[in-house]
Design brief:
alpha+beta, about 55% helix, 3-stranded antiparallel beta sheet, about 350 residues, single chain, 5-stranded mixed beta barrel, OB fold (Dihydrolipoamide Acetyltransferase, E2P), 3 domains
């Protein structure tokens, strides 16, 4: 219902009343309407308070936790403002009958209730301010702790890089001890003592590439030169033997007494075939050298070596390479050991 203002006492009364209940003034219908009421004033106060809180919130940078708390405070303020507004309506309804008795104007009542609403809003604002500063302090403490953690991380990272560099250096030293010049020189000496001349030369060349000018390199090159001399001698001896052919002059007695000294050497013998054993692609014979049954030679050759078969009692000349001695069982059960030759050519 609309209200009109009394020209005498400024009291707000219903527009359908003809007389002011406070001062007795008689209304003639020309009095101005008052569109304001206590409820609207209270709501305006609450809106203004909310705007102040929002402005404060926009001016400060806080953490997400603080923003959530501020939103809760604003919601609480809105709830309290709504409660105050409801209470105002109840109080107005309750105090309306009493107004005539006490003579208290409705404007004064609204001002009192509006002041209470403003006080509640101020309390909410103070509470918000306290919580804001509390979260701001927590944010500063967290930022300080984060900076300390970053500083400690950088220190630890630098220490780790130093340890990694030291580890690489130690691995390089270990590799040097296991595969360095000293270790390679030991391998070269072992190969030299074993008569592995080509291996000595190869290892010395590798050491020279990795440790050129070192004392180990100088010693290794000396051993490489000596090994090359040995290879040259072997090559010369082999060439001489090939030029000599099978005419080496090695006797049966030499093969029988020291077969190891002549193993791999070319030999030539003449005699009588006393036994022939033919196999699959190979033939084995026993040959009485110079027709002497006390100097029997064991020989083996591929079937393709001869155009016609070799038979017992044939006299032949064999050319081949000594393979040391051959042992076999006699018919009486004893072991017989005689010189063996790998036959490469036969003259029938």
């Amino acid at each position: 219902m609309k209200k009109i203002k009394c020209p005498e006492c400024q009291n707000l009364v219903d527009e359908n009343l003809k007389e002011c209940s406070c001062c007795g003034y008689t209304f003639d219908g020309t009095e101005e309407l008052d569109c304001c009421n206590a409820e609207q004033e209270s709501v305006d106060e609450a809106v203004e308070t909310e705007k102040n809180i929002e402005a404060t919130n926009n001016c400060c940078e806080v953490s997400e936790e603080a923003i959530e708390s501020i939103s809760g405070i604003i919601d609480s303020a809105e709830e309290k403002t709504s409660e105050v507004s409801d209470q105002i309506d109840k109080n107005i309804q309750y105090l309306e009958p009493e107004k005539k008795k006490s003579g208290m104007s409705k404007r004064v009542l609204c001002e009192i209730i509006g002041g209470v609403a403003l006080g509640i809003s101020l309390i909410c604002a103070v509470n918000f301010n306290n919580k804001f500063h509390s979260f701001e302090n927590k944010y500063k403490d967290t930022s300080k702790e984060l900076r300390n953690l970053n500083r400690q991380y950088n220190i630890t990272k630098k220490e780790n890089e130093t340890l990694s560099a030291s580890n690489l250096e130690l691995n390089a030293r270990i590799h040097e001890l296991e595969n360095g010049a000293s270790k390679q020189l030991v391998d070269i000496k072992n190969a030299y003592d074993a008569g592995e001349w080509q291996k000595v030369i190869d290892l010395a060349a590798q050491l020279h590439v990795n440790y050129n000018g070192s004392s180990e390199d100088a010693e290794a090159q000396q051993l490489a030169l000596a090994s090359q001399d040995q290879l040259n001698q072997i090559a010369a001896q082999k060439a001489a033997e090939e030029a000599q052919g099978y005419e080496t002059g090695i006797s049966y007695d030499q093969l029988a007494r020291t077969p190891g000294d002549f193993e791999g050497k070319k030999v030539k013998f003449y005699g009588k075939v006393i036994q022939v054993i033919e196999g699959d692609g190979t033939v084995q014979i026993r040959l009485a050298v110079d027709d002497n049954y006390d100097t029997v030679l064991f020989g083996e050759y591929p079937s393709s070596v001869v155009a016609s078969r070799i038979l017992e009692d044939d006299y032949i000349t064999v050319y081949g390479t000594s393979v040391g001695t051959i042992s076999y069982q006699s018919t009486l059960g004893g072991t017989i050991t005689i010189p063996g030759v790998l036959i490469e050519k036969i003259e029938q």
